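Fold it.
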Amino acid sequence: MGPKEKALQITLQGIRRINLAFCPLDRYQGTGEVREYYNNVTNPTVKKSNPECEVKIDVKNDNSEPLIHIVYEDGDERKYNPRRMSLFNIKTEIHNETRRKLEEKGVPVDYGVAWRY
């Protein structure tokens, strides 16, 4: 993470399905980013924000490009290629789009974190 990049809180709220695909034998950029994103969205705290969200990972052996495919609850789909975008930029776009969709519905954002004071 660069000096200007700040950590984003991830929420699965408003997301129906996340499909991830990568080839582990691929020596180019992108494979590690898909694995890292998978670890982020399967974190128990993040998973609590939407336990109904289906996270599927497809490990391929055909040298295909890595892919992060998001399906929102309203049916909107977004595909991101980690070879063309940094993981931080992908997470930022997903975060902004999720917040926008939730604000349109008037739903407060839940990060799955139980705040303790």
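Residues 1-5 have pLDDT under 50 and may be disordered.
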